[in-house]
């Protein structure tokens, strides 16, 4: 197209503007046509031979990325393009440049991401799954007079959690931190049926905080015959002080403990993630009380929204029927 436009009388700059390319691209195409005719316009890479990054190369690269460098015998803990070049070559594929490896990574959809730290449950897998299944059945067949609540605690730091945010090019947001960090703790209980949350605040994460939450839930469900708590194995949930305080409730309160290190089985973890995403991340509160006021306001607004949901009202009516 560049040659045809120039042959029709247009200048090289005019042809470049119409084709949305650089003027040098038009000049190069015209020179190749003048020198070699139509053959000069063909892709010069056609004689380069077989592609280096073929399907076998990509499969090998995917197998490498499934493991870590140390699992492949390297001492480095994370992959780089240069190290991937050496490892793929060691596995019998052709050697490529780091730039080509970058394009190969993009072709298989690989991305640089932060790893997710996890702690493995010490229980046997079969036992862990059986326990989680029992708790799911407890939630699925819960009676209206025996609500099931997911319980957990959340840390609130005056030093804000730093997270990504949309900004214009060349700009970067600044979040001023107080320097001397302060902590508060929120203990909450999420109703598995209504999705409403009951919470209390405290300055320390102790048995007293959990006891305060139990009393708040007991007051919030005066007609409940029995309250079922699904919670983790924190020491504050089974301490002598907690057991003594729970004896006053008798059989009204039943604790169902999750397997160790299984936060995915506790629905309230998602609520705490939402609180951090909407309140504590990149916050600009200078005082701890102002930050806790924002946390309370978010949880209040969430409860109001859940109560106003027509789908939730219909589901509650069906369960009651």
TrEMBL record:
It comes from the Bacteria. GO terms for molecular function: nucleic acid binding. Transmembrane segments: none annotated. Residues 148-291 form the Tc1-like transposase DDE domain. This is IS630 family transposase. InterPro entries: Homeodomain-like_sf (IPR009057), RNaseH-like_sf (IPR012337), RNaseH_sf (IPR036397), Tc1-like_DDE_dom (IPR038717), Transpos_IS630-like (IPR047655).
């Amino acid at each position: 197209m560049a040659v045809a436009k120039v042959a029709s009388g247009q200048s090289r700059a005019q042809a470049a503007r119409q084709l949305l390319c650089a003027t040098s691209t038009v000049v190069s195409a015209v020179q190749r046509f003048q020198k070699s005719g139509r053959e000069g316009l063909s892709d010069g890479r056609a004689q380069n031979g077989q592609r280096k990054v073929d399907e076998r190369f990509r499969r090998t690269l995917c197998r490498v990325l499934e493991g870590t460098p140390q699992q492949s015998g390297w001492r480095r803990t994370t992959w780089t393009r240069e190290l991937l070049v050496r490892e793929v070559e060691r596995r019998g594929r052709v050697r490529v440049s780091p730039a080509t490896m970058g394009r190969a990574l993009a072709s298989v959809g690989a991305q640089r991401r932060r790893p997710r730290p996890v702690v493995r449950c010490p229980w046997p897998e079969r036992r862990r799954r059986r326990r989680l299944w029992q708790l799911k059945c407890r939630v699925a067949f819960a009676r209206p007079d025996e609500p099931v609540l997911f319980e957990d605690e959340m840390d609130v730091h005056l030093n804000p959690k730093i997270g990504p945010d949309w900004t214009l090019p060349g700009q970067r947001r600044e979040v001023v931190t107080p320097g001397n960090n302060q902590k508060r703790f929120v203990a909450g209980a999420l109703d598995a049926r209504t999705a409403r949350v009951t919470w209390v605040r405290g300055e320390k994460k102790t048995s007293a905080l959990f006891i305060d939450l139990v009393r708040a839930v007991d007051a919030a469900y005066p007609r409940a015959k029995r309250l079922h708590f699904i919670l983790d194995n924190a020491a504050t949930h089974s301490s002598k002080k907690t057991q003594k305080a729970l004896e006053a409730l008798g059989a009204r309160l039943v604790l169902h403990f999750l397997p160790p290190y299984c936060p995915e089985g506790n629905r309230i973890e998602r609520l705490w993630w939402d609180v951090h995403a909407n309140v504590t991340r990149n916050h600009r509160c200078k005082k701890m009380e102002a930050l806790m006021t924002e946390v309370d306001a978010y949880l209040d607004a969430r409860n109001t929204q859940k109560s106003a949901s027509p789908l939730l009202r219909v589901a509650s009516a069906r369960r009651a029927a």
